[in-house]
Amino acid sequence: GEDVEQSLFLSVREGDSSVINCTYTDSSSTYLYWYKQEPGAGLQLLTYIFSNMDMKQDQRLTVLLNKKDKHLSLRIADTQTGDSAIYFCAETRYSSASKIIFGSGTRLSIRP
Amino acid sequence: GAGVSQSPSNKVTEKGKDVELRCDPISGHTALYWYRQSLGQGLEFLIYFQGNSAPDKSGLPSDRFSAERTGGSVSTLTIQRTQQEDSAVYLCASSLGLTGTVNTGELFFGEGSRLTVL
Q1: Contact residues, chain B, for A43 at CB < 8 Å
Q2: Is B45 in Cβ contact with A99 (below 8 Å)?
Q3: Per DSSP, what are the bridge partners of residue B92?
Q4: Residue A13 CA: distances (Å) to CA of A108, A109, A110, B77
Q5: In this complex, which of A42, A45, A100 lies closest to B33 when CB atoms are compared?
Q6: Do residues B75 and B32 make contact, with C-beta atoms less than 8 angstroms apart?
């Protein structure tokens, strides 16, 4: 079955890098996503990666995918207070019949 | 340029009452999801509609929960005989689905309906 796991909390110092980790069980996963939920707001897509890639970089964000270990990570460089949020990992197969499954979310807090 | 609209935004009800939560997706989006987010918990998948296909109901926690999507657009999630453990934020999301080679399946979420069962 499908399962996506994340650690619940991460605390980093402002200006340091944050690394949020995620593991998934479905070896047929083809799209993997990171969503961000800011306090009092809805979820928004932050970035995504196809399963045929092992890295994707977008400004301060770097996504790493290890298909062998079914491990996905999100690195945020130079973490700022505005990065405080809950980050959700999600996965799906490439199929119109496949639902998108989310992890439990990692709450990122920034300390001065 | 309306996004996903959910109503009511807040609902307080007594244990044992039925509630209906409404979701109005983005026009043209064929896929519609319902998720539940409990305090301190992640997003729990409830049900998924894709076009005219039979919905994937595998996430509904009990037979007290049901959902329908009329005319491929608006969806209603119904919870019968509510229990205190049903208290949560119910999130609806829509997307273009995963058909086509350029579509990433990005979900667009509503603000959610916060349900409190006393």
Answers
A1: 43, 91, 93, 107, 109
A2: yes
A3: B34
A4: 11, 9, 6, 42
A5: A100
A6: yes
Strands across the sheet containing A55-58 = A4-6, A18-24, A71-76, A61-66, A55-58
Hey, is the C-beta of B104 within 8 angstroms of any chain A C-beta? yes
What are the chain A neighbours of B96 within 8 Å (beta carbons)? Answer: none
Give A13: exposed, middle or buried? Use CB within 10 Å, 0-12, 13-18, 19+.
exposed
- Interchain CB contacts (distance < 8 Å): A and B: 59
**pLDDT of A96 above 80:** no
pLDDT at A18 over 80: yes
DSSP string, A31-95: EEEEEEE-TTS-EEEEEEEETT-SEEEETTEEEEEETTTTEEEEEESS--GGG-EEEEEEEE-SS
Q: What are the structure tokens assigned to A62, written together? A: 């770097």
DSSP state of B56: B
Q: How many whole angstroms separate alpha carbon B105 and alpha carbon B109?
A: 12
Please tell me if residue B6 touches chain A, with a CB cutoff of 8 Å. no
Q: Look at residue B103 and tell me whether its pLDDT is greater than 70.
A: no
**Please, what is the end-to-end C-alpha distance for chain A in angstroms?**
41
